[in-house]
Amino acid sequence: MSDTRFPVLIVGGGIVGLSASLFLSAHGVKSLVVERRSGTSTHPRARGLNRRTMELYRSIGIDEAVRAAGAALAPSFGIYQGSSLVEVVESHPRKEDKGTPLLPGAAYFSYLGPVEGARGTQDMIEPVLLSAVRDRGGAVQFSTECIGFDQGSDGVTATLSDRNTGSMTTVNAKYLIAADGANSPIRRILGVQTTGAGTLGHLLSVLFHADLSELVRGRKFSMCLVDQPAVKGLFTSINNHDRWIFHLSYDPRKNKVEDFSPEHCEKLLKLALGLSDIEIEIESILPWEPTVRVAEAFQHGRVFLAGDAAHQMPPWGGQGATTGIADVHNLAWKLAAVLHEQAAPTLLETYDAERLPIGRLVSDESGAASREDGLISLKKSIPSILALIRRLPRIAGYGYVYSSRAIDEDDTTPILHKIAGLLPSPAWALGLCGNAGSRAPHIWVQRNGLRISTLDLFTKNFVIMAGTQGKEWCHAVSSVATLLKVELDAYVVGRESKLVAPDGQWEYAAGISPKGAVLVRPDGFVAWRSWGMPSNAERKLGDVLKKVLGR
């Protein structure tokens, strides 16, 4: 490592840490990722990415590569239960393979964003992220452990150990992102306390090879819960052919992890499969505990917790990795703004204000989806169904609104329109209706003859998106950008504008009049909404930006 100074040091080279590096690179910020393992994940772990995560990957141009990496898992749908896998699968008729189906609920959410969610396990996705990190100038060091650090008024000094040679290196960074997992050493060094329900059960994740292609042909599944006296656990599909995981439940009061040798696990797998003569090869057996545990704070001076280091939750609903990716996307533009001296360091305090409530919410919701033994609950009672309905927005990556000093909630919307906005609608329920603190609305527009999403405009700079009669906003933006030395783009949306769309479509989606506009942050969230054109537009826009940037 020739350079020992980096703007940002990222401890943890899993899916969250690699994503953090990519988001920082998109803002022109260099980073170093260090990972104690010798390479990317060899265990499948997370199995899908929601719509919002794929929007984020689209913003940096890797969504298609990520989707292709998980293509083998894409046809896996359906969560079933029974006494064995054979009993469950054979109870379903074979269906003709008609290509990759949409994710459940995709048709309902399709008009809300430009991309669908994707399937794919971490061992499939992380190599794609690693390649992209290196292509974009990010530095990654495997077999490297952060064994200690000090932080001061000017930055963080970290001591790194090469796990192969034992040699030590000192790295200086302005900021440190701890994406080092559920048992985060960085969190432990900081002495951060956690809250939550704690451990919900004890499981062994058994990754194995068995040719089940004929069994599942035409009746592929995502998960299958098996309950019988001798064995209980959950099968999850990996490639719909010969690679599978069985989450085996055990009672630590009766058995130790050491009791589950490969030979013993093979016998249990045959029982759970309902196949006594199948050939099984066990690749790994990893103990893990479905847990709800959330750090009391995510920011600690110049150190920021993200992903499992910040919030640990059961995987039922696919919220773990996706919430961590949203964490670092939220943090990346703020670090960039401070490092580029466009914002005050106080902007970084909004990371806690915006992401901590979300971390707590999805962790609690994921915990509530667990049985008493930590496995996924498939109860069909009315309360369980209602709980699932409430969770659906978060499962898709939506359903929350930020509130912090980086959001200006001053709203000039007339009272009648505010009342109309209270009427239930999908956009309102999902927090996508253009109000301050929400993810900016998506509509399809034409720009220079190309069809793009409005979300494609929110990647690096602040953006003003005005209605059909909002040309004056462009003049205000030019003056404010020059005065504050901030990159600020402006667009008018309409039939005769640079962004071509039917007149009124953007106004309806964003909740503004034809002369109104929304100010969108680089992370795609609305910082401020103005119903119309204020008489002092330049001053008001300048004041809002200074507030958002902490200046």
Report on the architecture of this protein.
By secondary structure, the protein is an alpha+beta fold. The chain has 3 domains: 5-73 and 120-195 and 292-396, 3-Layer(bba) Sandwich (FAD/NAD(P)-binding domain), CATH 3.50.50.60; 74-116 and 202-288, D-Amino Acid Oxidase, Chain A, domain 2, CATH 3.30.9.10; 415-548, 3-Layer(aba) Sandwich (Glutaredoxin). It is built from 17 helices and 25 strands. The strands form 6 sheets. Strands 1, 2, 6, 7, 8, 9, 17 and 18 form an 8-stranded mixed beta sheet that branches. Helix 1 (15-26) runs parallel beside helix 6 (122-135), helix 1 (15-26) packs parallel to helix 10 and helix 15 crosses helix 17. The model has no long low-confidence stretch (mean pLDDT 92).
Oligomeric state of this protein: single chain
Fraction of residues in helix: 25-40%
CATH class of the largest domain: Alpha Beta
Shape: globular
Q: What's the total helix number?
A: 17
**Could you say how many structural domains there are in total?**
3
- Secondary structure class reads alpha+beta
> In this structure, how is the largest beta sheet organized?
8 strands, mixed
Rg of Cα set: 24 Å
Total DSSP E strands: 25
Q: Examine the secondary-structure arrangement and name the CATH architecture of the largest domain.
A: 3-Layer(bba) Sandwich
Organism: Exophiala bonariae
Cofactor: FAD
Transmembrane segments: 6-29
Protein name: FAD-binding domain-containing protein
Write the SSE topology.
Elements (H helix, E strand, L loop, with lengths): L4 E7 L3 H12 L4 E4 L13 E2 L1 H9 L3 H7 L9 E4 L2 H6 L15 H4 L8 E2 L2 H14 L3 E3 L2 E8 L4 E7 L5 E11 L6 H6 L3 E6 L3 E7 L3 H4 L6 E6 L2 E7 L5 E7 L12 H12 L7 E8 L2 E5 L3 E2 L2 E3 L5 E2 L7 H20 L10 H19 L13 H15 L18 H7 L4 H4 L14 E4 L2 E4 L8 E5 L5 H13 L3 E5 L12 H6 L6 E4 L5 E5 L6 H12 L3
Parallel strand pairs: 1-2, 1-9, 2-6, 4-12, 9-18, 22-23
Antiparallel strand pairs: 3-5, 7-8, 8-9, 10-16, 11-14, 11-15, 12-13, 13-14, 16-19, 17-18, 20-21, 22-24, 24-25
Helix pairs in contact: 1-6, 1-10, 10-11, 15-17
